[in-house]
Amino acid sequence: MKTISAPKNEVELMQRALSIAGYTLAEIANSIDVSVPCNLQRHKGWVGTLIERYLGADAGSKAQQDFAHLGIELKTLPVNRVGYPLETTFVSIAPLVANHGITWQTSHVRYKLSKVLWIPIEGERSIPLAVRRVGMPILWQPNAEQEQQLKNDWQELMDMIVLGKIEHITARHGEYLQIRPKAANGQALTEAYNESGELIMTRPRGFYLKKQFTAQILSDFLAEVHRVHR
DNA sequence: TGTTGATCATGC
DNA sequence: GCATGATCAACA
């Protein structure tokens, strides 16, 4: 596997991202000596890791943006044939304890979503992984309305957690941001509080962006492209 | 058949 | 277990 150095600035990062638009995952993988699995069943994060490596993101399990020196987070987004998201987007782990004093302003969700480089990629399972194509990169920052939408959902969900209602939260809570399990398996447990304020063990949860939200980002981008071309 | 809840791999 | 990267697949 070839190691690519980190992009020095935003322009360089965007040039690299643009350079793979239209190419297949196999072409990109081959160019940096990475092998392509038959499918994603046992390699769910493979596409994200591949693009990370190609663009020169510092790998690792640090709780930071992928390009921290540029203040940019990288997210690949599987889309269907008409460019609609096929999956929700994981954002960050939900803090179930020691969360007093955390505000929207200081939250991991706001930090991770403050600036995102979205890379749409064909994701239909009928298309062999190797020949799925990468789309145009979208450098995005939430507008005032989007930030308010996210903040509202985050506050509602965090309020429930702080009130000990974690076991009552389902994926149906939140319009654009939801909380769902995020763990290696059903045996994984972490601390939380119940409604009586007692410490309990529960499944770790994560914040996810619903498809409707990421679809809006893609559609806003297309609208902007069309506006500029008129 | 779309969503919700569950799960897969890896490093430390 | 947690944080990284996400998608799978059971079931309503």
Automatic annotation (TrEMBL):
Its main location: cytoplasm. GO terms for molecular function: DNA binding; endonuclease activity; hydrolase activity. GO terms for biological process: DNA modification; mismatch repair. The keyword Endoplasmic reticulum does not apply. Signal peptide: none annotated. It is found in: Cytoplasm. The keyword Cell membrane does not apply. Residues 55-153 form the DNA mismatch repair MutH/Type II restriction enzyme Sau3AI domain. Keywords: Cytoplasm, DNA damage, DNA repair, Endonuclease, Hydrolase, Nuclease. GO terms for cellular component: cytoplasm. InterPro entries: DNA_mismatch_repair_MutH (IPR004230), DNA_rep_MutH/RE_typeII_Sau3AI (IPR011337), DNA_rep_MutH/T2_RE_sf (IPR037057), Restrct_endonuc-II-like (IPR011335). Belongs to the MutH family. Sequence-specific endonuclease that cleaves unmethylated GATC sequences. It is involved in DNA mismatch repair. This is DNA mismatch repair protein MutH. It comes from Frischella perrara. The lineage of its organism: Bacteria, Pseudomonadati, Pseudomonadota, Gammaproteobacteria, Orbales. The gene is mutH.
